[in-house]
Amino acid sequence: MSVSLDDISIRTVPRPGDLGYVIYLHGDLYGREYGFGRQFEIYVSRGVAEFLENYDASKDRIWLCEHDARIIGTVTLMHREGNSAQLRYFLIHPNYRGIGLGKHLMELWMAFAREIGYERAYLLTADELYAAISLYERHGFIMTSETDSTAFGRPLREQRYDTKLG
User: Fold this and answer.
1) Is 156 within 8 Å of 163 (Cβ atoms)?
2) Could you read off the pLDDT of 30-49 as tens digits, one per residue?
3) What is the C-alpha end-to-end distance of the chain, expressed in Å?
4) How far, in whole angstroms, is CA 28 from its chain's centroid?
5) H or E element, residue 101
6) Measured between alpha carbons, how far is 102 from 93 in angstroms, rounded to an integer?
7) pTM exceeding the 0.85 threshold for the entire prediction
8) Can you give the residue ranges of every domain in the chain?
9) In angstroms, rounded to a whole number, what is the distance separating the alpha carbons of residues 15 and 17?
10) Mean pLDDT of 85-107
């Protein structure tokens, strides 16, 4: 399949069913690629519910990438205390990696966070998500903590990355 960024539409207004599909994509993809268990899907489900319950269009945003009327990528910005933002649910379907979509989403995310006036941002990830971590670091995120975990059904190292936006 030969797809370019021009073939992908990005919207920021979720429709009914979108966030359920985001949960599915995360459970399916991270299960297949990293061996994460149902605990990970539960974690994503709780976080997506929190996003929906606390959603404020003036502070929060979701970017939903579509190709052929199907969601193939996503990232969210969630407002947090202390004028900070959390990056969550960053995912690109494997068939759409390597075309610059991840970089484009990060640029949109960073621009929105700065436009809103957030001072800081952070994200949580696992140490073996090398491509994502490289992208975060290129956008100014620095690892600030690391802990051993079995929260997603198998041993891994959870990492926190932070950046200043202002």
Assistant:
1) no
2) 999 999 999 999 999 999 99
3) 40
4) 15
5) helix 101-116
6) 10
7) yes
8) 5-164
9) 6
10) 97
Please identify which residue in the block is written with the tokens 């052929």.
Answer: 68
CA distance 128 to 147: 13
Topology of domain 5-164, per CATH? Aminopeptidase (3.40.630)
For residue 77, give both structure tokens.
Answer: 């910005």
**Size of the chain, expressed as the number of residues it contains:** 166
Rg of the chain on CA atoms, in Å? 15
Would you state the torsion angle of the CA atoms of residues 66, 67, 72, 74, taken in this order, to the nearest 10 degrees?
Answer: -20
Q: What is the largest CA-CA distance in the chain?
A: 44
d(CA 89, CA 144) in angstroms, rounded, equals: 20
Residue 140 Cα distances to 65, 91, 162, angstroms: 23, 19, 8
Q: What is the pLDDT of residues 48-83, one digit of tens each?
A: 999 999 999 999 999 999 999 999 999 999 999 999
Per DSSP, the residues of 58-93 read TT-EEEEEEETTEEEEEEEEEEETTTEEEEEEEEE-
Q: What is the Cα–Cα distance from 121 to 93, expressed in whole angstroms? A: 24
Tokens of 36: 């994460």
